[in-house]
Design goal:
The chain has about 250 residues and is an alpha+beta fold. The chain has two domains: about 20-55, no CATH class; about 80-245, no CATH class. It is about 25% helix and about 25% strand. The chain contains four helices and nine strands, in the order ααβββββαβαβββ. The protein has a five-stranded antiparallel beta sheet with strand order 5-4-6-7-8, covered by helices on one side. Strands 3-2-1-9 form a four-stranded antiparallel beta sheet, covered by helices on one side. A hairpin with a 2-residue loop joins β2 (about 100-105) and β3 (about 110). The protein is elongated, with a radius of gyration of 32 Å.
Length: about 250
């Protein structure tokens, strides 16, 4: 039998091996990524506080400055600048019964989770009004605790002291009228209406005998199930400001 093939035989043309094509594509991708990264680095070098190589850094921006900025933001927020003769404070209440409160003096945390000195109820820091030095800190369970230790603590505060308070979870269930009176004498105007699971922060002081204290550093949010941010608790509160040193 005779078989006849019509047409020309097709010969395959040798092309570029597949492995070389893959290598070329990878090389192009690598170059593109490198150029994009280089552009980002040059752009970031003009961002305040960027810590790149020396030839990328902005003049007069030191690593120390950047480190302090990050510390302020992560631990105590960005404190309000205070005039000479004042010291700064920054307070947050707790958030529900999950995130604890925080009290900072001169950008240093004096009460918080990291310090292991906070608890549910009312958290208190006492500061020397003349020096800004933290003298005492404590927390008092006001849900099922005894109000007596709180009252003894408040009565023992020395005159001329600055007192900072922050709530966590429930600050009021066991808060009796005598304890409320002692806090009112420190300058609080919200203490009489403080209720179950309210959020509250306050800065007051113990004045000289016979003197009356009225504080403007106070925030209070009522526990209202229709308005609460965290189901059975209101939103967290922040408060910051400047306090003049007590003159001799």
């Amino acid at each position: 039998m005779l078989t006849v093939r019509i047409g020309k035989r097709v010969h395959k043309t040798k092309g570029i091996p597949r492995r070389y094509t893959i290598k070329a594509v990878l090389a192009v991708l690598f170059l593109a990524v490198f150029l994009i990264r280089l552009y980002q680095i040059h752009s970031l070098s003009w961002f305040y506080g960027f810590l790149g190589p020396e030839w990328l850094q902005v003049p007069n921006v030191s690593k120390v400055t950047f480190s302090r900025t990050i510390t302020r933001f992560s631990l105590c927020g960005f404190p309000k600048p205070c005039p000479e003769g004042d010291f700064s404070f920054f307070i947050t209440s707790g958030a529900a019964n999950v995130v604890g409160p925080k009290i900072c003096i001169e950008n240093k945390m004096v009460m918080g989770y990291a310090e292991k000195n906070i608890g549910e109820g009312i958290n208190i820091a006492v500061v020397n009004g003349k020096t800004g030095e933290v003298m005492r800190t404590d927390s008092f369970n006001m849900y099922n605790g005894d109000p007596e230790p709180l009252m003894k603590f408040l009565e023992s505060i020395e005159r001329g002291s600055v007192v900072l308070m922050a709530s966590f979870d429930d600050p009021a269930t066991k808060l009796n009228q005598e304890a409320r009176k002692l806090i009112r004498q420190l300058g609080s105007s919200a203490i009489d209406s403080l209720g179950f699971r309210d959020n509250w922060v306050f800065v007051g002081g113990k004045a000289a005998e016979g003197a009356y204290v009225k504080s403007t550093f106070e925030k209070h949010i009522k526990n209202d199930k229709d308005q609460n941010k965290y189901d059975n608790w209101p939103e967290m509160i922040e408060l910051q400001g400047c306090i003049p040193y007590l003159l001799e």
